[in-house]
Fold these 2 entries.
Entry 1:
Amino acid sequence: MLRVVASFVLALLISLYTTPLMRRAALQFGILDKPRGPLKRHAEAVPYLGGLAVFLAYLVSLAVTFEFGYAVLGILLSGTLMLLLGLIDDLGVLTPFEKISGQLIAVIALIKAGLFVKLVFLPMPVALVISVLWLLTVTNALNIIDIMDGLACGVAAIAALFLAGIALHNGEPMVAVMAASLSGSLVGFLRYNSRPARIYLGDSGSLFIGLTLSALAMNGHYTTKNSLAMLVPAMVLGVPLLDLGFVFLVRLSKGLSPFRGSPDHLALRLRRRGWSVEQTVGAAYGTTAALGLAAFILMETTSATIASLMLIGPSAAVLAVTAALWRTEA
């Protein structure tokens, strides 16, 4: 418990220090997110490189508080590859094919370290395919919700904190410390990323965070009391996954490529309905926390009735929200 708390606090403090440094570096070298198109409506150019500040705080915190075993090195290597891919993408030189190819390389590096979905009823080839799909889906889900000040960063921080708590409860120190360190890094960064944001994560940050969260969630143990608890990772990361699914379906219904950007996100539709940025981001935070709590109850219950309610309740809420926002143009 002490190590988990220490990793969170140390990462938070380092992030508070490194984020302004990265902001100054981005301004000096002109690494800026300039307003353009329907998704970039901020008033003036905002520095990137926030992801690098989060990564440095996360890495240094782990170096001080935890041992770099094989699994830890696997997660760090794949996360570093994803960070570098995002840095290159932030410079605007990657095609969609090159970007997904780079993501696959990072995912393969992670799987080669022995980190993949391990469910006893799944044959190995099926487990590997599911692992690849899960890692790529969560990584890109986190990437596409990075569209509003504090949104992706705060949601990821809360999700990581729940993963740390669940892992600590289950006696999994590696996942607990790594998730706590990631959460602390994000909380420190959030001070500069909240509205009005003074620095953005950039693709380097969102891709690294998405892969790390998906890897940590994938390697927890959830099903000791009921088999439905295998859905805990999807619940904890439900907000970015919901937005990804929503955007994908809306774009298909419009005859658009699901791989091209468009203002079809749930958050932007809430803004269209008159919600402020603070209200929209707060709703995402609250939903993430509620899903995390429901996931913990699902994992702990031995009652089939309670387990069903923990799944049916959030599912009904999701259907209600998506139905209400489907016709709202962003």
Entry 2:
Amino acid sequence: MIFESPLVLIALVAVPLLIVLYVLRERRRVDFAARFTTPGLLPNLVDARPGWRRHLPIAVFLVALAAMIVGVARPRASVNVKREQATVMIALDSSLSMSSRDVRPSRLAAAQHAARVFVDKLPKKFRVGVIGFSGRAYVAVPPTDERPLVYRALNSLHAGQGTALGDAVALAVKLAQQERDSGKIPPTSVLVISDGAQMSGRTTPEVAALQARNQHIPVYTAVIGTQDGVVTVPLPGGFQAQLRVPPDPATLQRVAQASGGKFFDTLTDSRLKQIYENLGSRLGTRKETRQIGDFFAGGSAAFMLFGGALSALWFRRVP
């Protein structure tokens, strides 16, 4: 505990001084009464002596005085406060295979819709960042609590060549580290929505998953697409060809398992809900310094009222 005005605590010296004065007064009162009465006759004159009850109101008053002085010194204490902030990084595959229409209206559009619904269900104090990845991974929007920015970032993703899955996970981990370096230290999770296979990039999915695990960042992966997926690619001479693009859930499973996350074979709300439920369980507490002078002031007032009530109840004058 620390005090903003520690010099005020010098006034606590008054408490033992008042105790000494009270003891001296009690002794003088007894000596004074002995001059005019015979101690052996007191039981015939007084039904009962108040005993310890006579000292309790003054004791309560002294406790109240000490609490008041401490409160005026404006104490501050470090308390454990429940953390309410967390970060979710959404890495959305925007590779060419995501333009397949085996999932209506397309894999990419379905993934964007699922991500928007997921963001809608997140607690408002959770920060969300969006990473897009095709031939390379890039930050569509850094972690923010401004939901309109997140929705615009999701809608801005367009299909391109390549699938840098490992780079996307590694970039998400890097952004989470930057959040922690800023002092916020929120628990972080990554959600990857993809149809699977790594086709480009510098970091393999397995290496990126281990990086995430070392930073205690679970990666949740959700696969999208069916075995009937095809895309149309242009050929020289104005020709076109259809290319089969079945999903690769095995890669996503390995990433989730290696990082400590979970793999989802569907994009249903009930499955994705597990991600922010897991975040909620990891929130824990954080140390925060708070002003607690009001507690001492309130306690002082309560003791004052209690002492006054005892005095009025036990020692009221009968007319």
